């Protein structure tokens, strides 16, 4: 915002404040304001039934003890010399029945007489009234006159103290209305300011470092007190104060609000809060506030005064806010306007109202009532300031959070990349050491020991790298569980045997105690193994000597695994932090080993299973870690013997690399920039009868690709000359997915890397370090699938009625290839459904005239399952099937219609849609509905069922329509609207099909 714009806003705001007051005072001023002369006031021209009350201005008749009359104006302030009796006769005529008098002379004793009758007298001769007094039900005499006599007896203040005298006359109804309205406005504004003080104090409690918020809270509290003690003194209605404490309260609230508002502005918008000029100012204000509370009331008014204090404070506030608004930004502009509104209120109340140049009517209006709008505008501006600051802070925080998340993702990506890159050479080193240990029989004991030590250290490094990979995946919610009903026993036994190397140089024994029969748990076997490994690894690491006991028990819902050690233990502070990332405790062992991720990952995995992982420990006395996992719904009988010492536990059988049945004759071409990897790959695959050729050059790879025929390509992603992604794209420009499968190898396993590989055209994606059994299995599956597809494609021409398009096969294969890396269970299910689909499609029964409806539905289910795996959430399938209906239907009736709905109705929609398949009985017919909410069929294309020309993209529907008409005499009924979807109805007479069923079932 430009400075000129800000200046215009400030000027416009000042004009609004001034005009608002003038309009207010104009509306509060009576239309006619008569003046009394020599104690006589002619008010007959005033319409008391509609007009505001009038001020009794002009000459009053003052009488002394000698009863010598003296005509003078009513004193403006009640002081000692103002005591006396004042009379005025008001000529009112016969306008209203009852009149009233409003008298404001706080803390002074006075009496009111009407037509020489006492109508009011202060009851407390020591204090006087603490609030304005309304004397109602005054009646004029038979001449339409009302004689008012005021007697001021005593003022309970000092010679410097004074109280404003204000007397107004009007109808009883009007006086009561004005008094109630003024008091209510004053109380309402004070309450609103008090609420602001409360929420500011709550904000301070939430963030104690924001000391400016506390200053604002105190300033708002004092402002609310100042409001309710000024003018009509609303506070006096609920909590009457003596005159002494009333004066102290007024002074303290006004001086305090200026002081604390000054502190708020200085600490919020300047960096000079601690400089010596401000320190001196703080000291002076603090001393003055103490003086107001402690000094004798007779001299409180002698020092400085409210006007000077407010002028100093708000001048500094004005300069700071003005400088902030024009130098920093518009965020402080609402606060500046709020300060201007407060200054306006104080200025009009203290300064302007006492100016002698003002007309008596205006001066009376200023002093007579409470003006609420300056303070209200100030509150609105204060709220705008806080909200503006909140939204700007929120926007800044959002920006910082986005930047932090970006940096966090970069850090996680760095950890993931680094971990994968470290894992490949680490596993290569471990495999080489293992090969040397197994193949070399003439190694010296020292050399063998050193190689075993390298292997031990490598295993520890492998655990750390795996933890880093897991923690990055968990942060991005990429860890998925594959729960099943499993036994805990083999996991524990295998983990104990795997970690035996850690006890070679320690005097530690491991015991397992289990009940005779343990239930099965419902969990992911791989992840449970990881949790148990971390628990036992942690116990071994922090147990220099002694024993570790694994105790397993179960209750009705959970199985508990306790790992109890006699190690160094933990203090209470360490126990609160051990499950946090990168926390390791404060002992010498933890400082030298690990990075503090294993236990945190284990707890998260346990909670993902619906269980828990807790720790109990005492320093120097060991620790107990308890893992709870939910039981499986279906249990099997088993028997486990307990209390098995570690020395007696049989070692788990070594998993040897079982040879994958060879498929001889297949030719494989592999490329990798690392000759060692190529050598290992060549030796491993040639054993199974594959003919494999390897190269480290992309140019040589392309040359061999063109020179010979290959059945499979193995490509490393990270190569210096050309990436594996680009090389795959080049291959896909020449060969499709089934003609030449491609297997990508890489150390990167992030989902975006996997997706990039499949988008480039890969069939499979294997991460390094390569598990050779897994790789051989994948190679065998791809080659067999390639051969199977080639056979199926050759059969497609003979089974044209099956309506299976090659692109459907290719898309399904792509989906199978993608799931093979991401979710093997889903891949196996998809392969099963795909096989069922192919088997049903090419079944010899398709040559029959009819088949059972359940077989046709099975084909549709398989097709929709395949498509849903491909399209994901974009395709929603709903079934509403009456399974009691059993009848026959022409083969391949529903599948082409469902395929048309998916491909031509839902696929064009970016967000996808849903398809509903209904089967129900209506009278003697079976009704089948196929509904989708896709793009619909345009009207010009809906005629193809009734014409002979047809459309190339509707062959399946026309074929089905024709076969149904020939068999049942009733074809397809189609209802479609562009943009709303399509509904196809098939009506099948049950009686005719029952006969058909009997005929077809007869041999």
UniProtKB/TrEMBL annotation:
Domain Histidine kinase residue range list: 417-633
Name under which the protein is recorded: histidine kinase
InterPro entries, per the entry: CheY-like_superfamily, HATPase_C_sf, HATPase_dom, His_kinase_dom, HisK_dim/P_dom, HisK_dim/P_sf, Sig_transdc_His_kin-like_C, Sig_transdc_His_kin_internal
Species: Terribacillus saccharophilus
Keyword Transferase: yes
The EC number(s) this enzyme carries: 2.7.13.3
Reaction catalysed by this enzyme: ATP + protein L-histidine = ADP + protein N-phospho-L-histidine
Modification type 4-aspartylphosphate: residues: 716
